[in-house]
Amino acid sequence: MRLTNVLFKKVKSKRIMVLMESVVSGHQFNLFRERLADKIELIRFDPYIQKESLYRERKRIRSA
């Protein structure tokens, strides 16, 4: 193995894309957050019920 192969590491992204899902209706959208941050919960307008509702992070989609 050459020295150059030893020095190169795969770089991880600082941000990841996560799937946010409404607790009330199941409406979903994608959002970016920092990799080391806590899971996100936020209140946002839900087009299915035409009111604001709580959205929770459901799963991680990919690195960004």
From TrEMBL:
Entry GO CC: ribosome
Alphabetized UniProt keyword annotations: Mitochondrion, Ribonucleoprotein, Ribosomal protein
InterPro entries to which the protein is assigned, alphabetical: Mitoribosomal_protein_bL33 (IPR052008), Ribosomal_bL33_sf (IPR038584), Ribosomal_zn-bd (IPR011332)
Localization, UniProt: Mitochondrion
Signal peptide range: none
Family: Belongs to the bacterial ribosomal protein bL33 family.
Protein name per its UniProtKB record: Large ribosomal subunit protein bL33m
